[in-house]
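pasting input
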Amino acid sequence: MLEQIRSKLDAAFVPKVLEVRDDSEDHRGHAGYREGGNTHFSVKIRAAAFDGQSRVAQQRAIYAQLKQEFADGLHALALDVGGADAP
Amino acid sequence: MSDAQAQIKETVDGNDVVLFMKGTSEMPQCGFSSRVAGVLNYMEVEYQDVNVLADEEIRQGIKDFSDWPTIPQLYVKGEFVGGCDIITEMTLSGELDTLLETNGVAFNKDAADKIRESNA
């Protein structure tokens, strides 16, 4: 799942910065956790594609790329999105 | 429009601030919902909480309504504002204060400042 998320975002946005982390184990025992993990991820991404977009538009663009992953059990995606020059 | 969509629309149009969440404002059942409810509670914002765990049709329906695949979801004056990451960022940047002020929603500004101070 992690590699799948990474490669889809990489192809779609050609990011300057892309960090994908699997946080599933942090959520063990909580709602949404399933045995085997692959449920909770966090993403930090910086790409020119996001320049000038609202936060909602940025996150929607990412969600749109990961429709299949959400259908396959991805439960939560903590997003830190910014334009190419965002800190 | 399905019943669930009509019900969601009625809720977001009929309340100034609505939070679709897992659990209730008093007892959130997910860390992300808890974070947003906690901010609103602390800032003394009056809002309608909708527990999506109590109704499977609303749980799926709200994702279709906003084209947003995750919960929580915050609405102000009928407009979708965002989920947990966006609300957190907007709280810390002061944009949430501006949004509430612009829409005439009362909140405790000192409390909002306190959140920012403790996260500076």
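fyi The mean pLDDT of chain A is 90.
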